[in-house]
Design brief:
Helix content is 64%, strand content 0%. With 174 residues, it is mainly α. α2 packs across α5, α2 packs antiparallel against α6 and α3 crosses α5.
Length: 174
């Protein structure tokens, strides 16, 4: 049963970018016809809640891209660890997505590709096998660390930003 769920989740993760591409304009950053206003492309340094969601989305997006690259390289332990992590972190990722949808386009529910495009995030990783191999090998252990607990990440980041700290502070990752 778990293997079937993993297969379905991995298939959805691979198909989602194709669906997302259909939701964005030709430059890959602006939504297609249903939206009338263009997404701002800068980070919201003056809105701590939005900036926190932007940073959290970036972490989740990067982990997803690495897991997909690992799966394409037959490093299935990394992809399976991502599926488990994604299930645990679903609520935080979805909440950030809804907030960013409202911020950028005035709607809560958008495809992940539209949100990632609005943030200017890369659609895929371009890593050499020498870099990808070790990254895939260490991903399961990394995702088990506190720094990838997105509820904790969100709370610490928001706290730091609200007291005037900078978003690049290493305090967030401790």
């Amino acid at each position: 049963m778990r293997r079937a769920a993993f297969g379905c989740a991995l298939l959805m993760a691979l198909v989602m970018p194709v669906w997302a591409e259909e939701q964005v304009g030709p430059d890959g950053t602006a939504p297609a016809a249903p939206f009338s206003k263009a997404a701002p492309s800068e980070y919201a340094f003056d809105k701590p809640e939005v900036l926190t969601a932007q940073l959290l989305w970036g972490v989740a997006h990067g982990v997803r891209l690495l897991a997909l690259a690992c799966a394409e390289s037959d490093k299935l332990a990394a992809a399976e660890a991502w599926v488990d992590w994604r299930e645990r972190e679903e609520a935080q990722i979805m909440a950030a997505g809804r907030l960013l949808g409202r911020h950028y386009f005035g709607v809560e529910y958008l495809s992940p590709g539209v949100i990632s495009g609005a943030l200017g995030l890369k659609p895929e990783l371009d890593l050499s096998p020498e870099v990808l191999g070790p990254a895939c090998d260490t991903l399961p252990k990394a995702l088990a660390q506190a720094r990838y607990d997105l509820g904790r990440f969100q709370a610490k980041t928001l706290e730091i930003l609200q007291r005037g700290g900078k978003p690049d502070s290493l305090e967030i990752l401790k």
